[in-house]
Specification:
The chain has 1 helix and 7 strands, in the order H-E-E-E-E-E-E-E. It has 84 residues and is an alpha+beta fold. InterPro entries: Rof-like_sf, Rof/RNase_P-like.
């Protein structure tokens, strides 16, 4: 099964707070995440919004990329913790 369609695994609550802070600052961040092919990818982007859809949390960049938060590996080289 494609992990993009797998059961959502919530990210660490404190890390979510960091994402909200980066979104508020509107400064570019380095996103490290698993692409739809399961391969690591990086992208510099401004976080526009964080939201929930179908019981999964998402990040939306200013460029329009939508990223499910459990696909994130790190932001600005700060790894996403595995537990909340």
């Amino acid at each position: 099964m494609d992990s993009q369609n797998s059961v959502y695994q919530p990210i660490d609550c404190n890390y979510y707070d960091r994402l909200e802070a980066w979104a508020t600052l509107r400064e570019p961040v380095l996103l490290e995440f698993l692409g739809s092919d399961g391969q690591p990818q990086t992208e510099t982007a401004v976080i526009r919004d964080l939201y929930v859809r179908n019981k999964a949390e998402f990040l939306l960049t200013e460029a329009g990329r939508e990223l499910r938060l459990d696909r994130l590996m790190a932001v600005n080289h700060l790894p996403v913790p595995k537990t909340c």
